[in-house]
Amino acid sequence: MFGKSKEALVRLDVPQSSVGAPLPSLVADEQTLFVCYLLQTYEPDWDGSTIRVVEQDSENEPLAVLKVPFCRAHLFGPPNDEAISGHRLAKLGLEPFSAFEVTNSAWIADLERANRVHPYHHASQYAALRHFIFTFHDSVLEFIAESFEVRQASSPLRDTLRRLVDEL
Description:
This protein is of the alpha+beta class. Helix content is 12%, strand content 29%. The chain has two helices and nine strands, in the order ββββββαβββα. It has helices spanning 106-115, 157-167, and strands spanning 8-11, 25-28, 32-38, 63-69, 73-77, 99-103, 130-135, 140-145, 149-153. Strand 2 (25-28) and strand 3 (32-38) form a beta hairpin.
């Protein structure tokens, strides 16, 4: 059922994360994962001579909010954009500041294989699962779920995270 074909990456059409400071943040419990990150903004008159510092409390920063219902697993951490070539999926075209679905996921196959010891295991329970990967400036997020929803917001990131805790 799994692992018969090689893994491949399919680019996702999601809002572009900031390439400077996306500040990706997670709120999760055993069933739901929320992911927030700042979006890339473009200043047409910017000449590159200054920098703009953003923080979780910055006002009016556009952000993406992903809701991942029934998230089966997630992994958040290295590598950063400068070391992305060291990620096991880099040879398949993994790039920084992007989002992909991993088809024929070895991770999903590993989860299914590990669960075979369960007395009520059915491999079919893994058929609809999908492996998603988001690459940010300083981190990578991977998660396993059937789907996710994305919306945009503009409230301070910290306020959004507080509201999401209440949605769990």
